Amino acid sequence: MDIQSLKKEIESEGEKIKTASELASFKAGYTGKKGSVTLLFEGLKEIKDRDEKKEKGMQINALKNLVEEISALKEKELISLKRAEELKDIDVTLPPHEAAQGSLHPINLVMDSINSVFMRMGFTIEEGPDIELAEYNFTALNFPDDHPAMDMHDTFHMENGYVLRTHTSPIQIRAMLKRQPPLKIIAPGRVYRRDAVDASHSPVFHQVEGFMVATDVKFSDLKGILNVFTEEIFGAGLKTRFRPSFFPFTEPSAEVDVQCVNCRGKGCKTCKSTGWLEIMGCGMIHVNVFKAVNYDPEKYTGFAFGMGVERVAMLKYGISDMRHFFENDIRFLKQF
Ligand code: PHE
């Protein structure tokens, strides 16, 4: 067949291609090992005249290019046909499935908002280990050796003098051992006590500790800062009061009450008709604590406070049972 008719044939055969296998045999038929274009190339050897040979070669090459062009075009076409076939039963106008979105746990939410209130007042966040030296959890905090808190009934004791920290106060010790005053630290974390689970107890719960040490820190500084805190967390207009209390690591010590968030002081079930809710312990850091970390108690004074995050969250959201926080029922968690 002469080149001109072969060209026509290639063009019309190319038009007819409808499937991948037709495309494959098209390619094989012309440019494969035994393809007619390939055979033409072989025939070139026979031609003696250089110019004729060159001219013929160029023509055959053009045929080969044509086969390749048509093949590439058809291949693209076949791919998009296949895509269209696959999509034909899919309704792209259907609304999408709603993806379930997670949310922060209420304890984290409350912890974050407590932290941020204090950060705005210049406190920085610091953390400590859950598995703590009994030395830091108790001794350095001025607990006497026979203090009942150290009893097997209250504390999870580990090996080699370690305990699961029963409060966040050992972070005070770690911070003071590491650095010199002034310190203004807020320390959130998980704490552990051997308590049976009920509506207001759990062996694991959360605390936020705060403390400040400098050359002239007074009890009135503590009061001012805690007043800002209760207003920010529970809303403006609720009063706070400080009742004398006792902790080994603070002197004087106080319990902080806020006016009942539910009845605003009138007296109701939430506050057991007292009008007040206990929200944290606090006090001026004990001289013996300063001695334990080699701070000069003549030079420095400081305050510390600690609160239970679950309790704050329960009061803030009106939750009556602490177990909700740990059961992780989606219907509960979704509400925050
Ligand atoms: N660590 C105390 C507790 O767990 C709370 C507290 C912290 C009291 C700091 C005074 C100062 O009950």
Give a structural overview.
By secondary structure, this protein is of the alpha+beta class. It has 2 domains: 3-87; 106-333, BirA Bifunctional Protein, domain 2 (2-Layer Sandwich), CATH 3.30.930.10. The chain has 12 helices and 9 strands. The longest helix has 38 residues, at 50-87. The radius of gyration is 40 Å and the shape is elongated. The structure holds phenylalanine (PHE). Phenylalanine (PHE) binds at residues 167, 169, 209, 247, 250, 281-283, 304-306.
SSE layout:
Blueprint: H1 3-16, H2 20-31, H3 36-43, H4 50-87, H5 106-120, E1 124-125, E2 131-133, H6 134-137, E3 162-164, H7 170-178, E4 183-192, E5 204-214, H8 219-234, E6 240-247, E7 250-259, E8 276-285, H9 287-292, E9 301-308, H10 309-317, H11 324-327, H12 330-333
Parallel strand pairs: 1-4
Antiparallel strand pairs: 2-3, 4-5, 5-9, 6-7, 7-8, 8-9
This protein binds phenylalanine (PHE).
Number of H- or I-type helical stretches: 12
Query: If classified by CATH, what would the architecture of the largest domain be?
Result: 2-Layer Sandwich
The CATH homologous superfamily of the largest domain is termed Bira Bifunctional Protein, Domain 2
Q: Kindly name the structural category.
A: alpha+beta
Low-confidence stretches: none
Q: Report how far the terminal alpha carbons are from each other.
A: 82 Å
What is the CATH topology assignment of the largest domain? BirA Bifunctional Protein, domain 2
Rg calc = 40 Å
Order of helices and strands: HHHHHEEHEHEEHEEEHEHHH
Spatial ordering of strands, largest sheet: 1-4-5-9-8-7-6
Q: In one word, what is the shape?
A: elongated
Roughly how much helix do the residues carry, as a percent range? 40-55%
As for the number of domains, it is 2
